[in-house]
Amino acid sequence: MLFGRTPQLPTPEQALKGRTTPEFEVPSRHTVLGNPLLGPYPEGLEIADFGLGCFWGAERKFWQTPGVWTTLAGYQGGSTPNPAYEEVCSGLTGHTEVVRVVFDPAVVSYASLLKLFWESHNPTQGFRQGNDVGTQYRSAIYPHSLEQLREAESSRDAYQEVLTGNGYGRITTEILPAADNPFWPAEPYHQQYLDKNPAGYCGIGGTGVSCPIGVAPAGER
After folding, report:
1. β strands within the chain, DSSP E
2. How far apart are alpha carbons 162 and 165 in whole angstroms?
3. Dihedral (CA of 155, 159, 161, 162) sign
4. Which residue among 42, 112, 115, 190 is least packed, with the fewest CB closer than 10 Å?
5. pLDDT tens digits for range 132-190
């Protein structure tokens, strides 16, 4: 894998030191939805963070969802502050590529976003997604509240049952609090990449197994 080296996460001591300020400015508005990319966001909206492989195709999945107010590509789950794309791809920051989803819970529920997340990639592949290999492609959810954490874990357990029944292995998705895993916006050219480049690369692809969101949690059926 990856030049003969098995990907592995660096310890905080091994990670690149990063920088105190970003090297670029994030665009002001979403090229599709027209809303601001960075907060503060309007009252009543909530934030969800998901990693499901290359963030180009992943971001499009979410901006196409009714009730999503804005989306933002970025990096999360690592140790390096204000990382650059090349640094993340080196595997020396510990980050994975993520999409920040700002949504209106009165229109689309967090559970519905979880269903889209699970069904849009293969969460059993560890440090890869399809042909994309590296720690930056690992599956991840970074909940912003205790309720989001509970929903994420419950949905994982429910989806594990149906994946196992269809011959898939253990879900490797990382589920860690967003409060302990800062979100760093990606470079301007990554934001809404597939809107700017309609024929661009999209490595997103699910297992074809439906996620049973809305059914009883695993062990209660």
Report:
1. 46-51, 68-76, 96-103, 128-129, 132-133, 140-141, 174-175, 184-185
2. 5
3. positive
4. 42
5. 999 999 999 999 999 999 999 999 999 999 999 999 999 999 999 999 999 999 999 99
CA–CA dist 198, 136 (Å, integer): 23
Q: Which of 54, 89, 202, 211 is catalytic?
A: 54
Q: Structure pTM?
A: 0.93
Angle at 17 between CA 13 and CA 22, to 5 degrees: 150
Enumerate residues 6+ apart whose C-beta is below 8 A from 126: 138, 172
Instruction: Encode 140-159: b = buried (16+ Cβ within 10 Å), e = exposed.
Output: bbbbbeeebbebbbbbbebb
Polymer length of the chain: 221
* Catalytic-residue membership of 54: yes
Q: What CA dihedral angle connects 139, 68, 34 and 50, to 10 degrees?
A: -10
Residue identified by tokens 């205790």 is 146
Would you call 196 exposed, middle or buried from its count of C-beta atoms within 10 A (0-12, 13-18, 19+)? middle
Contact 72, 190 (CB under 8 A): no
Tokens for 212? 């049973």
* Residue 177 preceded by cis peptide, ω within 30: no
* Residue-level pLDDT at 5: 65
